[in-house]
Amino acid sequence: MIQLKDVAELAGVSTGSVSKVLNGYAVSPRMKKSVELAIAELNYKPNMVARSLRTKTSNSIGVMVPYTNDPYFMEFFRGVSIGLSEKGKVPFLFSTEPHDEFSAQKMQQIFMRGVDGLIVSTYGWKDSVLEELYLIAEKIPVVSYKRSFPGTAIHSVGVDDCSGMFKAVEHLTSIGHRRIGYIASGLNLDTGQQRLKGYQQALEQAGIAYEDNLVVESAAFQIEDGYNAVQQLLKRFPLPSAIVGANNSVAIGALKFLESRNVKIPEDIAVMGYDDEPLSTLVTPKLSSVSVPVYEMTAKAVQIIEDAILGVHKETINILFPTTLKIRNSTDFSATAAFEFERFSR
Amino acid sequence: MIQLKDVAELAGVSTGSVSKVLNGYAVSPRMKKSVELAIAELNYKPNMVARSLRTKTSNSIGVMVPYTNDPYFMEFFRGVSIGLSEKGKVPFLFSTEPHDEFSAQKMQQIFMRGVDGLIVSTYGWKDSVLEELYLIAEKIPVVSYKRSFPGTAIHSVGVDDCSGMFKAVEHLTSIGHRRIGYIASGLNLDTGQQRLKGYQQALEQAGIAYEDNLVVESAAFQIEDGYNAVQQLLKRFPLPSAIVGANNSVAIGALKFLESRNVKIPEDIAVMGYDDEPLSTLVTPKLSSVSVPVYEMTAKAVQIIEDAILGVHKETINILFPTTLKIRNSTDFSATAAFEFERFSR
């Protein structure tokens, strides 16, 4: 059986150097090449499971998302994957759906597969699962995406959702809208509450009275939830002249329902999303939204994990990123019609 | 340290039964509940890595996709995830991008993390990586999605792409189109060649001469590739009255370019996709396409893996599934405008 030392001998380097290459640590390109050639020539197959027991590190990071059929979470995973690959680490993706069956025990199983850290999006998780996450965060680094857990060891990267939604609604009031419907999603979460607060503050700043019956709650965060929720807003009198979705998918659902009823967007009703993703530019008209810097946030999450594994952080890190208003045709008829590829092309 | 036998004692069952529960095997709901309660009460944390060394099974299946930002591959992963979860197995997702850097060595690393099987979509893989896959398939079950590897141990689930594309083009000729442009993608792959063959055979059946200059090759499979490729077809004279994409994303790219040039779809040019996915019903007009039974195929892939792990299969399994024509507004103005949720809602 070929062993690590045989590879080292053929490559003319130390066993420590071979180990570094196998674990993805930075070495000179020349050393990397010699080791890889030696591995290939000897057909050496290190046993990663045995090594992970010995070294106590697996060089892999678990990534958990609530859905795998939502482009929003796939962009997040893609960002994390790119960041981890650049560090020579392997991402493992897990989906926590169906949420109502996802258990603390399953969470433990994933943890015990020996990942060095977790990057998680916890939407829909039950308290019992979150409590397990708090315990895991005492043992390995955990970074939460978009949601912070004060008082626990969980790090987080997020955005200021109140100011982000404020920008969205301020854009609408600045172009003359006074009657603005709001599709609220995730009101049980801090992010959902902050977005509603941003909506209310922007109305207040424009001197518009808040009306309870212009706010409808969607069942969840997906396209069909927005498609269903918007129908309640269309029963209001007078009709709202603009509708904002608390996330991009519910706004797209609203837009699709309005299209099916031949409502002209933005002439009859303007539609605004939040938390921009590639779908925004594929629907007609293109959806105005508020963009969150997914790739900067995921790169930071990866950096926090890496530093934490190396023991750099002595305290819990919580970072908020800024948002950017993206004005497109669903609120502004004259907005540029250029097709945007950048978020697909990465 | 709490051990398996302590859990068994508290639960009043054998250690074998605890092991079954931990490994996700079918046991009575009552036994499952007692074991879970005992695990929770004792805060027992089995070491999965150590167990995987001992039992030689990890109860996890690796899933490899070429992209994570393409809804097509995410539907595939979602199907596999649902299927594996139902069997109590854990899916690990890996992305093989960037393809030009993805190496046989990385493939080995993934294999050596101790998965019991692999379900793979190999688009873009280099020969050196494929050769590594052939070797891995001698050791653990491997099922390929959409591509077969005759003469190797790799199982496959696929569709008859020639007859699928034949249906798409036959639909267009049946409603009067005689000049049909074709955006070819993946001509270096068997699937791409079969689709082109289907296009040619449908023309022949309708008595339409094949013209080389109505076929353009896209750089790759994504939306922007179709957006770019269709521009060549618009330089032909006379213009084609219909355009077919060899996959759904290139067709959506074509549709988006035509929209940006104010071409009326389907009145001026009809657009047809292939390999339907949820985006089809989000673009305007909704895209006609040929649907592949993703969930049936992924369920079958999971079943093949499970049977192969149990040693059921003595030979390589290759299964072809039938396709279904989906007629929507991009080829037929009068097609139903009802919004389709079923593929989002699963």
From TrEMBL, chains A, B:
InterPro entries found in the cross-reference section: HTH_LacI, LacI/GalR-like_sensor, Lambda_DNA-bd_dom_sf, Peripla_BP_I
Keyword Nucleotide-binding: no
SMART domains, per database record: HTH_LACI
Ranges where the HTH lacI-type domain occurs: 2-55
Any one GO molecular function term: transcription cis-regulatory region binding
A Pfam family hit: LacI
Keyword annotations: DNA-binding, Transcription, Transcription regulation
Residue ranges of the TM segments: none
Superkingdom to which the source organism belongs: Bacteria
Protein name: LacI family transcriptional regulator
